[in-house]
Amino acid sequence: MSYISVGDKYIPHTNRPFNESAYRSRQMQAGIAKQRCALQNGFFDKTFNRIFERSYYGTLSGPVEAMSPLSVPRKAHRPPGRNIVTSPPKKGSGYSYPNVTLSKIELYASDPYGRAKEALKREATVHRSKLRGGPFKLNLHPSDYFQGNPYRTDKPLPPANKPVPPGQKVSPVPFKPPSPSKKIGGMKAGTFDTYPSHSADPYIIRRSKKSNQEPVFRPAPGPKSTPVKSIIAVNVNRSVHSANYTSAIPTVMTV
């Protein structure tokens, strides 16, 4: 039973040729395939070279020239001279011991009273003599507010409010409406506002068509699809019908 056509003979893929056009008319032949042999015709080199141990063939550096086993001649050995003879160092670290370090001990010399204060006063006098004019002051420097206290005002304050005299006592009884609230019905009688009036739809302006304007092109619809029976259903109806129904389909259960 075929899934593509009705009544066609099925040909399996094993019986079909791989290239049907190769069996028809003459074909272009590129030449005879070469056979394996032990000759050097299939290689670029004229001679066959082999890579043995310690051979430079096939390397990137190429051949290496032979090296002599003799060592490189060197200069005659000259022993170093004697060290400089110095006096032995003194023992101890030298801390709190006089005449032990390289320098001599410093002699004590007293300073005049108030020497640092007089030197600072002298430097301040020299600095003041070099000044010209007072320090530069900018009145437009940025500030957080227009003044130090933003709530300060120069206007006089208004007179103080007089205490309000005690008024009449209000009745503590709550307000009660004369009638209970109405429920919302179909006529909207329980609301505060009346039923809203119906608003007319906006007027649509119809534009006049031009006399020389062509109608809009509308292509004709194509053919519509119709229900088609499948190939399997057609094959089943042809092979199995009322005449051979009992013989075509084997019985499953027998009494």
From TrEMBL:
Its main location: cytoplasm. Keywords: Cytoplasm, Cytoskeleton. Residues 156-166 have a biased composition (Pro residues). Residues 72-95, 154-192, 207-226 are annotated as: Disordered. One of its GO terms (cellular component) is centrosome. The keyword Repeat does not apply. The keyword Cytoplasm applies. It is found in: Cytoplasm, Cytoskeleton, Microtubule organizing center, Centrosome. InterPro entries: CFAP96. Belongs to the CFAP96 family. This is Cilia-and flagella-associated protein 96. It comes from Collichthys lucidus (Big head croaker). The lineage of its organism: Eukaryota, Metazoa, Chordata, Craniata, Vertebrata.
